[in-house]
Write a structure and sequence with these properties.
Layout lengths: L4 H10 L4 E2 L8 E2 L18 E2 L8 E3 L2 E2 L6 H27 L2 H39 L2 H16 L8 H15 L2 H16 L10 H11 L7 H9 L8 H23 L37 H20 L2 H4 L6 H30 L4 H35 L2 H15 L7 H6 L4 H15 L4 H12 L3 H10 L9 H23 L2
Antiparallel strand pairs: 1-4, 2-3, 4-5
Helix pairs in contact: 2-13, 2-18, 3-8, 3-12, 3-13, 4-5, 5-6, 7-9, 7-19, 8-16, 8-17, 9-12, 9-17, 9-19, 10-12, 13-16, 16-17, 17-19
């Protein structure tokens, strides 16, 4: 397949690792007009291969691939388009019928202003801070150290992957990076792990049991510190924004555990059984994955263990009396749930101060230039803030139209009896529906809920916990499976959605336990 010179130059400008994949259709040709038919926001980085018979795989750009417009990778933009358009059309229609057009007009203008001045700009500052701190953790080798702790567990979960296979190491590093919030490192590691798992795949185009298990853990991974949710609570004036650390740990642990159970059970269910799967007949050439070069981490200075030990002892001294007050005061806890609540309420306010001291000191002990590396990581914060700004405006305006028109209240009334049976607050329905689809959209939903109910309302804490305990399931599945040309995802999507549901229910339980 030949590439038009203009298209090649355009692709290389966007990403120097852009490569052209082999089109399975011999009559395919690359077409410059495809530049005008790209798939979705935020950047036009996915030119298509124009086939005379069937649209198919054409261009791979740094770990992702573009294939048939009806395949799983293109379902996500289509769903988001339908949801956004549906919110606007239904909201305007209901407002016209109910006579709420005046309230809708004011709500739209307020939402657009709030998205920029009240959410995006303050959030950019907080993201700048945390990206800088996480850069220190990454460069100091903390991700690799953490990966060693969870490697034995992965060998049990992925029994069909040889223990010495490189996929084990990549998956361990990916999960460790996700837990620590180093997403910029987690994604390429996850794509590399998926590519290595595909080497063991005997039925190309079909998700293996190991792939489904890896995706299930990825879409429900335990989050130690939900920084984005904490930032949104903080910029809205919450008195205890770090209070959701404990509730998020409970919810993410529940979601991850349920994901593992679901994925292991469903792989034995009739239509999902491996024996019933047939491989794809077309040949897929995945995009070339960038080779990860290991960064040499200097040896720790002699004073490092003493300094880190002192930090740990200091925070342990602050944590233990509040987590186990009955050890010092003699009064026994009212019950098991009260003891759990005391533990996590003592943990939550210490999590961020601990990270703000431990990570920089660890990096300094490793002879990392801490301030210079912090600045390098922090530079990404402003770029991310600019990138998510259009999404925040678009989604917040659509939500305002849907809410101020009265359509959201109608939906709550319809689903109210079902949600009450699960003891789930109907006001959190938008977060549950949007979170599996889009990260920026769910950020906008969370910001809207916090402004609507106040930053210290239990509903705001619960929404922030749901945000921190779930992942954008459809996006993760589309990107990871798309990178290796898997179109038969088997039980990966049902498992991810079930884990999202369990995480949402666990968030409600955890917040009622900790914030009652």
């Amino acid at each position: 397949m030949s590439l038009h010179p203009g298209l090649k130059h355009w692709a290389i400008l966007l990403d120097r690792s852009a490569v052209i994949g082999k089109c399975p259709n011999s009559r395919a040709r690359a077409s410059p007009p495809a530049l005008g038919k790209v798939l979705g926001p935020p950047f036009a980085t996915t030119p298509r291969c124009v086939c005379l018979e069937n649209p198919c795989s054409g261009v791979g750009i740094r770990g992702s691939s573009v294939f048939c417009p009806l395949s799983s990778s293109n379902i996500l933009p289509l769903m988001l388009n339908l949801i956004w358009l549906g919110l606007l059309l239904i909201g305007v229609f209901v407002a016209g019928v109910t006579g709420n057009l005046a309230a809708l007009n004011q709500g739209v203008l307020n939402a657009a202003t709030s998205a920029v001045m009240g959410v995006a700009l303050p959030l950019t500052g907080a993201m700048t801070l945390w990206l800088g701190i996480m850069r220190l953790a990454e460069r100091a080798g903390l991700v690799r150290q953490f990966a060693r702790l969870i490697q034995p567990i992965l060998k049990l979960l992925f029994s069909d992957v040889p223990p010495d296979h490189p996929a084990i190491g990549s998956m361990v590093m990916n999960m460790a990076a996700n837990m620590l919030g180093v997403s910029n490192a987690a994604t390429p590691l996850g794509l590399r792990a998926m590519s290595q798992l595909n080497e063991l795949n005997t039925k190309q185009g079909v998700a293996t049991n190991a792939m489904c298990t890896f995706l299930a853990i990825n879409t429900s991974s335990i989050q130690l510190v939900p920084t984005t949710a904490i930032n949104i609570l903080a910029i809205n004036g919450s008195k205890s924004p770090t209070g959701i650390v404990g509730s998020t740990l409970i919810a993410t642990f529940s979601a991850t555990l349920s994901a593992i159970v679901f994925v292991k059970l469903l792989q034995h269910v009739g239509p999902f059984r491996w024996e019933r799967q047939t491989p794809e007949t077309t040949t897929f050439v995945p995009a070339v994955q960038p080779v990860e070069t290991a960064i040499e981490t200097p040896r720790m200075a002699r004073w490092g263990p003493f300094a880190l030990g002192a930090i740990c002892l200091f925070f342990l001294f602050l944590f233990v009396p509040n987590a186990f007050p009955y050890w010092f005061q003699g009064a026994q806890p009212a019950g098991f749930l009260s003891a759990i609540a005391a533990f996590f309420n003592a943990l939550s306010p210490l999590a961020i101060p601990f990270l703000l001291t431990f990570f920089p000191v660890y990096a300094a002990a490793r002879r990392i230039p801490v301030y210079a590396e912090f600045i390098e990581g922090a530079k990404e914060g402003f770029q991310i803030g600019v990138r998510i700004l259009p999404y925040l405006v678009g989604m917040l305006v659509a939500i305002a139209v849907f809410r101020d028109s009265g359509a959201l209240q109608v939906l709550k009334n319809l689903l109210g009896p079902i949600l009450v049976w699960f003891q789930f607050p109907p006001d959190l329905l938008p977060m549950v529906l949007i979170r599996p689809l889009t990260g920026s959209g769910s950020t906008a939903v969370l910001a809207d809920l916090v402004k609507q109910f106040g930053p210290d309302n239990i509903l705001s804490y619960t929404a922030a916990t749901i945000y921190g305990s779930a992942e954008t399931t459809f996006y993760v599945i589309a990107v990871y499976f798309g990178s290796v040309g898997v179109t038969k995802t088997r039980h990966a999507i049902p498992t991810g959605l079930c884990a999202d549901l369990v995480g949402a229910l666990a968030s409600v339980f955890a917040c009622r336990l900790l914030f009652r």
